[in-house]
Amino acid sequence: MAIIGAGPVGLFAVFECGMLGLRCHVLDALDRAGGQCAALYPEKPIYDIPGYPEIGAAELIDRLEEQAAPFAPAFHLGHAVERLAPLPTGGFRIETAATAVEAGAVIVAAGVGAFGPNRPPLAGIEAFEGKSVFYLVTKREDFRGKRVVIAGGGDSAVDWALSLAEVAQIMLVHRRPKFRAAPGSAARLAQLAEAGRIEMVIPYQLHGLEGAGGALSAVVVADLDGRTRRLEADILLPFFGLSQNLGPIAHWGLALERHLVAVEPATCMSSARGIFAIGDVATYPGKLKLILSGFAEAALAAHAIHPLLHPGEALHFEYSTTKGVPGRGAPA
Ligand SMILES: Cc1cc2nc3c(=O)[nH]c(=O)nc-3n(C[C@H](O)[C@H](O)[C@H](O)COP(=O)(O)OP(=O)(O)OC[C@H]3O[C@@H](n4cnc5c(N)ncnc54)[C@H](O)[C@@H]3O)c2cc1C
After folding, report:
1. Whose CA is nearest to atom 21 of ligand 1?
2. Exposed/middle/buried for 73, CB within 10 Å: 0-12, 13-18, 19+?
3. Span from the CA of 193 to the centroid of ligand 1 (angstroms)
4. pLDDT confidence tier of residue 329, bands split at 50, 70 and 90
5. What is the DSSP letter of 180?
6. pTM higher than 0.85
7. What secondary structure does DSSP assign to 126-169, as a single string?
8. Contacts of 64 (CB under 8 A, 6+ apart)
9. Alpha carbon of 170 to ligand 1 centroid (Å)
10. For residues 229 and 133, what is the distance between their CA atoms, to the nearest angstrom?
11. Residue 255 — very low, low, confident or very high, per pLDDT cuts 50/70/90?
12. CA distance 51 to 158
């Protein structure tokens, strides 16, 4: 098996495939496993993973890696898959710029694709990126005592304004008074603004950056009439969502719907026999982009792949309690 994407869903697919005796290569463009959970919100708690009333995103990834470990997956991290082509002998060849693997079947678990933040169009922003302009927060403590401008009106902007207000001075820039955030968070934001703990800079948009050597001294904002205001600041966190770019996956000849891979919901098979898609990258009627849906899709795909790779071999459905997990001891 080749699994493209080592996000939470790709990692769980290693377990599901492993339980059916399928060995996996796992390829990811990023240099660590965990997908969005590890790259975008490692410190956030997740509340809708069955069996965990609350679990940190980074901890969930640690647990999934632990669960996959008995099946000894071959990880190829830091390698974006560029080409996927059928082999004349059956199976597929999966190529990155530096490596290639061959596999009997492929699971595409590539999330939103080669994801990246939407950058605000500010002159010279590249010089500040990674030094005083960040598109994600990996460690809240890095911002303690700093003057932080947060820009955006969605969940990320609001959640980080609420969280960072506990350790930093926050100015929240948004072009209109209404936020596209969970009602509870929006209400809490209004309370903190009222109490003077968060400065609301509304209706403004980012206009320019001031500073030298990658260190920011001020963020310039402009209102809808073009009147500017200078916010003295050490850090800018623009949260304008993720650019959804399927990248090379869009050119593999798979049927797509709204930039996602269309699959048959009972098996998660794409329009190409032997290529499956699960998690955020897959779509079908009623699809919910949740980690738990991706987990169930991993189980469906593994059970549909087994007969393709082992035709004529009966696959008896078994619970993990009956079967046990190799390397973890036999079931009691
Ligand atoms: C701030 C935030 C909070 C969230 N909170 C929740 C929540 O509370 N509950 C919930 O269920 N969901 C939540 N989500 C959504 C959840 O994170 C996603 O549904 C989940 O990450 C999807 O997992 P995945 O494995 O399908 O994809 P991803 O996590 O996106 O991982 C896909 C991986 O594929 C890799 N990849 C892509 N293209 C290629 C390629 N060509 N070659 C190699 N590798 C490639 C990427 O680098 C990435 O590592 C949240 C998302 C965000 C951003």
Report:
1. 36
2. buried
3. 32
4. low
5. B
6. no
7. GGTBTTTB-SS-S-GGGGTT-EEEEE-SBHHHHHHHHHHTTTSE
8. 8, 11, 12, 15
9. 28
10. 19
11. very high
12. 28
pLDDT digits (tens, 9 = 90+) for 187-235: 999 999 999 999 999 999 999 999 999 999 999 999 999 999 999 999 9
The residues pairing with 224 across neighbouring beta strands, listed in sequence order, are none
Q: Which residues line ligand 1 (CB under 6 A)?
A: 4-10, 27-30, 35-37, 40-41, 46, 48, 80-81, 109-114, 156, 247-249, 279-280, 289-292, 294
Site of tokens 């738990």: 292
Give the pLDDT of residue 5: 97
Tens digits of residue pLDDT in 113-159? 876 778 899 999 999 999 999 988 878 999 999 999 999 999 889 99
DSSP-based three-state secondary structure for 120: coil
Strand arrangement, sheet containing 81-86: 81-86, 92-96, 100-103
3-state secondary structure of 302: helix
CB 303 within 8 A of CB 20: yes
pLDDT, residue 331, reads: 63
